[in-house]
Structure formats: C-alpha cells, structure tokens
Design brief:
By secondary structure, this protein is α/β, with parallel strands linked by helices. Helix content is 23%, strand content 33%. It has 4 helices and 8 strands, in the order E-E-H-E-H-E-E-H-E-E-E-H. The protein has a 6-stranded mixed β-sheet. A two-stranded antiparallel sheet has the order 5-6. It is globular. 24% of the residues are buried.
Length: 230
C-alpha cells in the first residue's frame, strides 16, 4: 500500500517560460485504486518555488473543481509562501495541519521535469502580382502610347503586369515540454487513490498553461469517478 507523504510545500517548480504558441496538455498515464470512492472536499497543493505559478495553478484548479459542486481549499491560503527549505519537523507539522482540516481528499501537483528542443523552421516562397503598367516605367503614355486609365481592358492590364516571388528566411524555434505529476490522496487514511502524469507542450505563458492544465486535470479526476458533488 502506498502511503501519503506530502513533500515540502516549497520545492522545485520552474515557472513556465513564454513560448510562441498556445499550451496543449495531454494526460499520458493514470492509476486508480479500485477501492477509491468519491470526494466532496478537496485541498489543492501545487508544490511550487514560484509564488505566481503556485497561486495561478491552484486558483485555476480550484475554479474547475468548484464547478463540480465540491468544496475546495488552496494551500496558499493556509501556508504563506517561502523559498526556504523546510525541516523534517516543519514538513511533519504541515502534513498534520492539512489532515486536521477535515478535507476528504488532498490533490498534490508537482513538475517532474521540463525539456527544450530546438527545431529549424524552413523558409517559404510566396507569390504576388506586381503591376508594371502605367507609371512603372515600362509603359509611358507621354511617349506616344495609348492613354492611361485601363484602355486595354482586363487583358491589357494583365499583359502589363509581372509576377514576383518573395522568400522568407528560415529560423530556429524552441519547443518546451513540461512533465507534471498529480496525486490524489484520501485525507483520512493518507492513502494514494489516484495519480496521473501529464505533458504540457509549448505554453505561451503561465496563464494559458495553467488554464489548459487545470481543465484537463479536473476532467480526468471527474472521469475517474472521484468527484462526488451534488
């Protein structure tokens, strides 16, 4: 049986750096205790070294859970943010405090790692018509030609046009992937009842990454039959 051990509230979690595209989150693996029931009161703890990341993700997850008609509490409301390393005694006190709050379940999220990969984006060729008729130097009505104003009609206009090709330069782009682990514990028994690993690809910023991750995570918890709101 796997037991609940809440790591330090202040551990590594690098803030999601900005990229060029919208975040995409996928659940890559899940596990569920077959004896797990439904929960109506969640305590959400994002283990983050960065206060903005911790606050944003906890807030988004809490909003999603509340839509399922359950009670939700955020760790930041009870544990002031600090970047110092907690002692074993402080960790134990934090665990006892959380378990004594009367919540049904404790949801813990942590970033396991993140990777960066450079890729080359090939340059492109584009086409656009370039007028070279009246006023271009190729056609001058002052030197005995037909009057300006489109006397040749559609064909004449086209005949006096030329086409040009434009090329854009290739460039390098960095793809970033963040690997997160989410664990749900039964608050009374301290037993792990559900866990999931996920990947968030190319977040544009912490806001978009957090919103996308929260939606995917809560949906997965709900589909696992662990949310028991009315």
């Amino acid at each position: 049986m796997r037991k609940f051990i809440l790591p330090s509230i202040i551990i590594f979690f690098t803030i999601l750096e900005s990229c060029s595209s919208t975040a995409i989150t996928h659940i890559t693996a899940t596990w569920k205790d077959p004896e797990a029931g439904k929960y109506k009161d969640f305590f959400v703890a994002v283990l983050s070294k960065n206060k903005v990341a911790r606050s944003t993700i906890e807030k988004d997850i809490s909003k999603r859970l509340k839509k399922e008609k359950v009670q939700v509490a955020r760790s930041l409301d009870f544990f002031p943010h600090s970047e110092k390393i907690e002692t074993p005694e402080e960790k134990k006190a934090a665990v006892e405090k959380i378990q004594g709050m009367g919540h049904d379940a404790i949801l813990v999220i942590v970033v396991i790692k993140h990777t960066e990969e450079n890729r080359y984006v090939q340059g492109t060729n584009s086409y656009a018509p370039t007028p070279v008729g009246v006023g271009s130097g190729y056609y001058n009505p002052t030197k005995g030609g037909p009057p300006a104003g489109g006397s040749y009609g559609a064909f004449g206009t086209y005949y006096m046009d030329a086409s040009s090709s434009y090329q854009t330069q290739g460039y390098y782009e960095t793809d970033k992937t963040y690997f997160l682990e989410s664990r749900l514990f039964d608050a009374k028994t301290a037993k792990l009842v559900w866990s999931a690993q996920s990947e968030t690809f190319n977040p544009a910023d912490i806001g978009s990454a957090s919103g996308d991750f929260a939606a995917v995570l809560v949906d997965a918890v709900k589909k696992a039959g662990l949310v028991g709101g009315k």
